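Sample intake sheet
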Amino acid sequence: MDFKNRTLTALRAARAHATARTALVGLDGFVDTIVTPVAQRTGQGDAFTPIQTITEFAQRIAGAAGKSTNIEFYPLMDKLGGNGPIMANALLAAGTQVTYIGALGRPSIHPVFLSFAGRAEVVSLCDPATTTAVEFGDGKLMLGQLRSLDTITLETIDQVMGAQRFRNTLAAADLVSLVNWTMIPNMTAILSSLVDDVLPTLPARDGRTFFFDLADPEKRSREDLLEVMQIMARFGNFGAVTLGLNLKEAQRVHAELGFAARGVAEDDLREIAEDIRMNLKLACVVVHPRESAACATVDGTFWVPGPYTDKPLITTGAGDHFNAGFTQGQLLGLDAQACLTLGVCTSGHYVRSGESPSLDDLENFLSSWS
């Protein structure tokens, strides 16, 4: 039986437990405007030729040096955004009970989050940040305005949610996923306070999982990155810690920890994940390029190919959907390879449809994946 059939069998056996699982997710929130850059117009509306690649876009910008240029972004949609809300929305679709704490709008919830807020328990700390997501055939550029996220602190959470309610929710959660460290300036301080002052006061809990995602730390210093990873590792005293990384993030972390550069083949991805896991003494490290995914745990290293498509409907949020699928597998008690498979299928369904998959959708996707 291959990995797809094994995962399908395991998912069918475990899925009845999905609605009993709880997740606490945070702390960001974005309104994403998905756009296509226009190369040449032939008429109004969508009558244009798009700029196809980031290289072509860069050449257009470079040509404006010392002059000026006009680049049109054609809007495709406004949607719920941010690593946390997208991941939480996908966990909801798969049946997990979710409490979300983050930047969803204040004093009222922003319209793009209303459907999400109707299905999850939400605590909004501040207005959302905004992102213009420029999508190309070979990647995407995320142009953000993040000032509202400066107000996210543990003190704000305690004031808005109530300190005891927050601690009760944290204590009861099977999964605690705090993501987008890069864009939340006070996240390191929040994590430090949680591991030093909050978690030691909570009752011990078997089976608790912590999940962290750095969210492209290119603009953060080496010192900042190494500091927060050491803090994340200390959460292992209170549960099993998983660090999720896309390829670019994994290469940066791997290099900053002092390891020699590796390629992108299966063996390289396995080795990168294991090097990081062993160095930080984590329960699990996941590395997910667009075409595959690998992870390292105490049981060894694992790898699966992805259901890659060269014509996605949408790519913004694909990594967050992978994270949701992987952690959903963890919540259901699946093994590491099955968690990877659920991750790539959750992402694969999303980029083709623009929708977060239910467990029925994931079963159908697995059954039809050739």
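Comment: Residues 3-34+78-368 form a domain with the UDP-N-acetylmuramoyl-L-alanine:D-glutamate ligase fold (CATH 3.40.1190.20). The mean pLDDT is 96.
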